[in-house]
């Protein structure tokens, strides 16, 4: 195999590849591996595809896969791409597989052996297979999760989708928009690639759920502040009542004020409450004072 200017035979490559089955994890967040995949995979199968961490046993701590576009990653995954896929095992001989068939016009230089014991996967020695790697984005389909892979000479780079950013490993990770407190008058909830606002009482979210705006209760509800005037405030409202009315206990309307409950109202007479007002009926020998709030003697000046 022609690899980085060197001719390497298959038996040598088989020594480089760790084919032990292990546990693969597809997410890496804040240094913690998560989302374990159900099927056992080798480190090569895991890290060169969608895996982000790999562990050889259930008891051992997962190790992070090599950072993509590094020499360590190329060493693992370029070798993985050059190795032929494992053929189906013949019935009754699970420990033996037939030799792999080599593509192209490169016939074997020595007679083929009748069988090869797994996992060497070694073809007849000294077979040279030239391979030209120019586009890592096509060779490895899962290089830039949450982003777009852009090939570069001998490598690649990731252009992240909206709501994601490059981390130190060159991968696209979620941006926590809530750190910038975008939800004034609400609580921010971070989501993958975005966020949403849970608005407080008196506010409503925009169609995109990324902002909280004041509800104008005076316009939204025509039955508010009856017998008064509605004043909208930030996140609420209040009523300015007409003369003879007072704000109700719920604060949403104006109700009649019973002036007859005021001490000495309609003195020397009888107080009669009316909607928004009252009137005094004076006793005989008394007449209503000019302010209409009490009765005075007819001979009193």
Automatic annotation (TrEMBL):
Q: Signal peptide span per the entry?
A: 1-24
Instruction: Give the SMART domains listed for this entry.
Output: EGF (SM00181), EGF_CA (SM00179)
Domain (EGF-like) ranges: 174-213, 214-255, 256-296
- Subcellular localization, per the record? Secreted, Extracellular space, Extracellular matrix
Which parts of the sequence belong to the TB domain? Answer: 22-77
The cysteines covalently paired via disulfide bonds are 178-188
Q: Which CDD domains match?
A: EGF_CA
Q: Which InterPro entries match?
A: EGF, EGF-like_Ca-bd_dom, EGF-type_Asp/Asn_hydroxyl_site, EGF_Ca-bd_CS, Growth_fac_rcpt_cys_sf, NOTCH1_EGF-like, TB_dom, TB_dom_sf
A GO molecular function annotation here is: calcium ion binding
Keywords per UniProt: Disulfide bond, EGF-like domain, Extracellular matrix, Glycoprotein, Repeat, Secreted, Signal
Full protein name: Fibrillin 1
Gene source species: Bambusicola thoracicus (Chinese bamboo-partridge)
């Amino acid at each position: 195999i022609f690899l980085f200017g060197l001719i390497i035979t298959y038996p040598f490559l088989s020594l480089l590849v760790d084919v032990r089955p292990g546990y693969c994890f597809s997410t890496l967040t804040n240094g913690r591996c998560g989302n374990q995949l159900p099927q056992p995979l080798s480190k090569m199968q895991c890290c060169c595809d969608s895996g982000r961490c790999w562990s050889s046993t259930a008891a051992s701590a997962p190790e992070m896969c090599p950072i993509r576009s590094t020499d360590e990653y190329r060493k693992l995954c370029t070798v993985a791409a050059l190795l032929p896929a494992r053929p189906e095992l013949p019935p009754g001989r699970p420990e033996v597989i037939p030799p792999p068939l080599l593509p192209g016009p490169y016939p074997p230089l020595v007679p083929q052996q009748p069988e090869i014991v797994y996992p060497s996967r070694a073809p007849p020695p000294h077979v040279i297979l030239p391979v030209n790697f120019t586009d890592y984005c096509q060779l490895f389909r899962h290089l830039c999760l949450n982003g777009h892979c852009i090939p570069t000479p001998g490598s690649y780079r990731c252009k992240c989708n909206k709501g994601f950013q490059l981390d130190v490993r060159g991968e696209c990770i979620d941006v926590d928009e809530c750190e910038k407190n975008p939800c004034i008058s609400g609580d921010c909830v971070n989501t993958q690639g975005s966020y949403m606002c849970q608005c407080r009482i008196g506010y409503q979210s925009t169609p995109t759920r990324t902002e909280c705006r004041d509800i104008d209760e005076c316009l939204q509800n025509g039955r508010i502040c009856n017998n008064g005037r509605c004043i909208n405030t930030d996140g609420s409202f209040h009523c300015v009542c007409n003369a003879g009315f007072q704000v109700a206990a719920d604060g949403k309307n104006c109700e009649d004020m019973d002036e007859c409950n005021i001490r000495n109202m309609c003195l020397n007479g009888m107080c009669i409450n009316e909607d928004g007002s009252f009137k005094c009926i004076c006793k005989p020998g008394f007449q209503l004072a000019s302010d209409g709030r009490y009765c005075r003697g007819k001979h009193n000046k």
